[in-house]
Specification:
Elements lengths: L2 H47 L3 E2 L12 E4 L3 H12 L4 E6 L2 E6 L2 E5 L4 E9 L3 H11 L15 E9 L2 E13 L2 E8 L5 E4 L7 H15 L5 E14 L2 E12 L2 E6 L5 E6 L7
Parallel strand pairs: 1-11, 8-11
Antiparallel strand pairs: 2-10, 2-12, 3-4, 4-5, 5-6, 6-9, 7-8, 8-9, 11-12, 12-13, 13-14
Helix pairs in contact: 1-4
Amino acid sequence: MDRCRLKNIIILILVLLNGFLLFSLAQRRAAERDAFLRTVEELVALFEEDGMTLDGGAISRDAPPEGVTLVRESALEERAAAFLLGEFPTVSDQGGGIFHYTGPGGEALFRSSGGFEASGTLAEENVEDVCREFCREFSYEDTDVSLDEEGDGVFSAVGVFNSLPVFNCSVTFTVENYVLTSVSGTLLPQDGVPALGEQPLSAAGALLAFQRMRRENAAVASTVTETQLCYELQNTGAAMSLVPAWRVVTDTEDYYVNSLSGAVTAGGARTGEPTV
């Protein structure tokens, strides 16, 4: 058999093999799509039986991320202290995982749990811009900073990890007479290692967990309009971890479903955005 003919046979075999793989992939995706659509129909009907409206488009097909075990970052804390207190703050170890920083702007405490608080005269000019810059620099969502006529205001922003919001992780800014007097919250490390565990719940599974909670607790909600992936911060003293979770958006308040345990937590009354 000459080389040209052999080459043509090999090419034909490869084409047929690729065609078979593409056909198998298309079949699998079609089966997954059909199964998802059946799940949507069943969930919509289930919610309807309980007198609740579930928008079929609210059921996300996104896959939850892995959990993350976070690692404390001293350098990150030093940068946050310098941002708030001024360059080159002095630091002392208070024991128990607590570090105390002092600088021209005031003082701050950072704990191994991620919690921190800073107070003093942290900013006297362009306070709104300072708050927004802190959020950008240290991984929080943008916050709506608006002062009243006396230059007072309290603002909060939600922590972010790998582009996903983190439930129960936030920072709060307090402004008095156009002066930023305190900042407190949780400083979220951006380094961590995957925490392998059980298979997390899909959006459909999270909705079932939510519906069970609603039945048991007679929670007041009549419509589910959206499900969104997020993380839930878990803190056990010196150890921090992020667990994949689902935010269930209803017409009354938002609920957060731990995708590993199925536990449901109310996020507060809705005012446009979730309260965390």
